[in-house]
Amino acid sequence: YFNPEINITIGTAYLGQLYKSYNGDMVRALAAYNAGPGEVSRYGGVPPFQETNEYIDRIITYWFKAQNKPLPSYSLQSEYWQDVRSTLGWLCLLTAVLIGFVLWRLLKRHHSWRWR
Fold it and tell me: What sign does the dihedral 72-51-58-38 (CA atoms) show?
């Protein structure tokens, strides 16, 4: 374990194994790498340990910096998520109106809400 080359090889192989076992969910794989797979199973996801959460944030930040890409904002208050919530709200409203219109037409025409 004191040989850096062997340590990196074993560590990346283990992280790859965790990545496959969590079906490509890198956040859970990193959490299992840091806190252990038992803790991830116990909490049904990322355990609420400060060290684990900081580790995941640090690794993801390093990854995006290495890729020269801006780190996306995952805050639910960010403009992106506000746009998504707004769009989903309008889609839900439009769907409800369309369903209401179809039901109204069925009731008016067939005196029933079922197709005949």
Answer: negative
